[in-house]
C-alpha cells in the first residue's frame, strides 16, 4: 500500500519531484491516454465489425451493431481507416509530448538536486555529507528514477486504461463469462505480483546501497593508486571491485529474470483462459456462433496480451527503481526550504577597520568544546598566522570565520556591526579561500583562476594581475591543465589557488596549510609573495618554518 500511495502522491501532488505546472502536464498526458484508449477501442470494434460483416451479422452477439447494416462495407472500412489514422497520429503526438516532458523534468530535477547540494544551509548535513551517495544520486539514481520509474509509470497508466476499456468492451460483447475469467486472472496475478514486488524492492535496495559503496570505494582507490602499486595490491583491490560490481549486476540479473519468468507465466495463463473460453464455445455446437465468438474475442485479445505484458514489465521496473525514488526523496528532505537565488549576496559589508569575534564556543557536543571562549581581532590588511597542535581547532576556526560552520555561541562584528556568519551571505562575501588541496579542472589556467565564471564574463586583465602578484607572469594562461593538475608542480598548483582567491578580489583571504605539500624553498617564496599582498590574510598552518615571517601569531593552544 505504501508503494501505491507514494505513486499517487508523486504524480498528483506537488512535492520533491514535480511542481504545480509539472502535475498539470502529467494530468494532461493521462487525459490524452483516455482519448487514445477510446480511439483504440473504436478502431478494434470496427475491425471486428468489418470481419464479421462477411457473415452478414448472423449472430445475436452483434445485435448492438444492427444499425451498421445500413452502411456500405467500403464506407465502414474508410471510417475504420480514419479512426486508426487518428489514433496513430494522437499516439505520435502524445509520445513526443510525454518524452519531452520527462526529459525536461529529469534535467530540471537534476539541476535542482545539484543546487540543493551546493546551497544546503543544514550545518549537520553539510559536514556529514556522504560524497559517494551524492555522486551515485547524480550519476546513477536520477537517471534510474526517470528511466526505470517515471517512464514505466506512464506505460503502466496508459496500458491499464486500455485494458480497462477492452475488458468493458469484451463484457459488452460476451457477457459475464469474460468478466469472471478476467476477475480470476486478476486475483491470481495480484497474489503473484505481491510476492514479486517484495523481491524486486529487495533487489532494488541492494543495488542502490551497493552502487553508493562502489562509487566511494573506486574514488578512494583512484586517489591512492601510488600506495596500491607500492604495496603490489592491484589484484586484491581488483577482486574487491569485482565483488561489489557482482552484487549490482546480480541484482539486475534477478530483476530481469523475474520479469521474464512473469511474462512466461502471464502468457501461459492468458492462453489457458482463452482455451477454456474456446472449450466453452465448442460445447454450444453452433459453428457460426463459435466462429463469430472466436473472432470477437481473439481480436481484442491480440491487444490485451501485449498490454498485460507491458504492464508487467513497467511494474517490475517501477518496483526495482522504487528504492532510488525513496533515496532521492530522503536526500531532498534534508535540505532547508529556501529560494537559492536569495542566497546569492547582492550587498557587501563595508570592512574599514577590524573584525572582532567575542566569546566564541564550538563543540561537537556540550561536553567536548574544540574552541572555548575565543576572543580575537583581525585588523584590515594585516597578516595573521593561526597555529596549534593537530585537533586544536585551526581549520574549524577558519570554517567558522567563513560562515561554513555554525558556532555554538558567540558574537561576530565588522566595524562594530553584529552579523551571523553562518546565515548571512553578505558576511561570506568578505572571504576568499585557498584550501590545503587545490582543486583544478581539466581546462585552461585562465578558466581555473576565473573559477566557475562564464567565458564571456572572464576578466583577463585581472587574471594577468593575479599571475604577476604570484610571480607567474611567464606562464601561458591558456595552458591546458591535464588530469586535474598532474602536469604542474606543487608550487604552481598552490600559486594558481592563490591567484584564484586574488581574482575574486575579496577583503579577506583565508589559506589552509598553503605550504604543506611544498619544500622549504617554495614555502618561503610563497609566504613572501603572500605577505606583499594588499589584503587581510589569515594563514592556518603547522609549518614552523614560516612562523618568523608573521608578526601576528594566534596560538590556539595558549588561548
What would you say this structure looks like, in words?
The structure is a single chain. The chain is an alpha/beta fold and 559 residues long. The chain has two domains: 2-337, ABC transporter type 1, transmembrane domain (ABC transporter transmembrane region fold, Up-down Bundle), CATH 1.20.1560; 354-558, Rossmann fold (3-Layer(aba) Sandwich). Helices cover 61% and strands 10% of the residues. The chain has a five-stranded parallel β-sheet with strand order 6-7-8-3-9, sandwiched between helices. A four-stranded antiparallel β-sheet has the order 2-1-4-5, with no helix packed on it. The longest helix is centred in the middle third of the chain and has 49 residues, at 234-282. It starts with a helix and ends with a strand.
Amino acid at each position: 500500500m505504501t508503494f501505491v500511495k507514494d505513486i499517487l502522491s508523486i504524480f498528483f501532488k506537488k512535492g520533491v519531484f514535480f511542481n504545480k505546472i509539472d502535475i498539470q502536464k502529467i494530468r494532461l498526458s493521462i487525459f490524452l491516454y483516455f482519448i487514445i484508449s477510446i480511439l483504440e477501442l473504436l478502431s478494434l470494434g470496427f475491425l471486428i465489425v468489418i470481419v464479421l460483416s462477411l457473415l452478414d451479422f448472423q449472430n445475436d452477439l452483434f445485435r448492438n451493431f444492427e444499425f451498421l447494416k445500413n452502411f456500405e462495407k467500403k464506407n465502414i472500412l474508410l471510417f475504420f481507416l480514419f479512426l486508426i489514422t487518428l489514433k496513430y497520429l494522437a499516439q505520435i503526438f502524445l509520445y513526443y509530448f510525454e518524452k519531452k516532458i520527462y526529459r525536461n523534468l529529469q534535467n530540471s530535477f537534476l539541476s535542482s538536486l545539484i543546487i540543493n547540494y551546493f546551497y544546503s544551509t543544514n550545518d549537520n548535513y553539510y559536514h556529514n555529507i556522504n560524497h559517494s551517495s551524492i555522486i551515485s544520486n547524480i550519476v546513477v539514481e536520477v537517471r534510474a528514477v526517470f528511466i526505470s520509474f517515471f517512464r514505466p509509470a506512464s506505460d503502466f497508466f496508459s496500458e491499464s486504461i486500455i485494458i480497462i476499456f477492452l475488458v468493458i468492451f469484451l463484457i459488452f460483447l460476451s457477457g459475464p463469462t469474460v468478466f469472471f475469467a478476467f476477475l480470476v486472472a486478476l486475483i491470481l496475478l495480484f497474489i503473484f505480483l505481491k510476492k514479486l514486488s517484495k523481491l524486486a524492492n529487495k533487489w532494488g535496495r541492494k543495488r542502490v546501497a551497493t552502487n553508493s559503496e562502489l562509487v566511494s570505494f573506486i574514488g578512494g582507490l583512484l586517489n591512492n593508486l601510488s600506495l596500491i602499486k607500492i604495496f603490489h595490491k592491484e589484484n586484491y583491490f581488483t577482486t574487491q571491485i569485482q565483488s561489489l560490481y557482482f552484487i549490482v549486476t546480480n541484482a539486475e540479473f534477478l530483476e530481469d529474470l523475474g520479469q521474464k519468468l512473469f511474462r512466461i507465466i502471464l502468457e501461459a495463463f492468458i492462453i489457458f483462459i482463452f482455451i477454456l473460453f474456446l472449450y466453452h464455445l465448442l460445447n454450444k455446437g453452433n459453428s457460426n456462433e463459435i466462429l463469430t465468438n472466436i473472432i470477437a474475442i481473439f481480436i481484442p485479445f491480440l491487444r490485451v496480451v501485449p498490454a498485460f505484458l507491458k504492464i508487467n514489465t513497467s511494474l517490475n521496473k517501477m518496483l526495482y527503481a522504487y528504492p532510488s525514488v525513496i533515496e532521492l526523496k530522503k536526500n531532498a528532505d534534508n535540505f532547508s526550504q529556501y529560494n537559492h537565488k536569495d542566497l546569492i549576496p547582492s550587498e557587501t559589508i563595508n570592512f574599514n577597520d577590524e573584525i572582532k569575534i567575542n566569546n566564541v564556543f564550538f563543540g561537537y557536543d556540550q561536553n567536548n568544546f574544540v574552541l572555548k571562549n575565543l576572543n580575537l581581532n583581525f585588523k584590515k590588511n594585516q597578516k595573521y598566522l593561526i597555529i596549534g597542535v593537530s585537533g586544536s581547532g585551526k581549520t574549524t576556526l577558519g570554517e567558522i570565520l567563513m560562515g561554513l560552520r555554525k558556532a555554538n555561541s558567540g558574537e561576530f562584528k565588522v566595524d562594530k556591526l553584529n552579523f551571523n556568519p553562518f546565515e548571512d551571505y553578505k558576511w561570506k562575501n568578505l572571504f576568499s579561500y585557498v584550501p590545503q588541496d587545490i582543486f583544478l579542472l581539466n581546462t585552461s589556467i585562465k578558466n581555473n583562476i576565473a573559477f566557475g565564471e562564464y567565458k564571456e564574463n572572464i576578466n583577463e586583465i585581472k587574471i594577468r594581475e593575479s599571475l604577476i602578484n604570484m610571480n607567474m607572469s611567464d606562464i601561458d594562461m591558456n595552458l591546458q591543465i591535464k588530469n586535474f593538475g598532474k602536469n604542474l608542480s606543487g608550487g604552481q598548483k598552490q600559486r594558481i589557488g592563490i591567484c584564484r582567491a586574488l581574482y575574486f578580489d575579496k577583503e579577506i583571504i583565508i589559506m589552509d596549510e598553503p605550504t604543506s605539500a611544498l619544500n622549504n624553498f617554495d614555502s618561503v617564496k610563497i609566504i613572501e609573495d603572500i605577505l606583499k599582498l594588499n589584503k587581510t590574510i589569515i594563514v592556518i598552518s603547522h609549518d614552523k618554518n614560516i612562523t618568523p615571517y608573521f608578526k601576528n601569531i594566534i596560538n590556539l593552544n595558549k588561548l
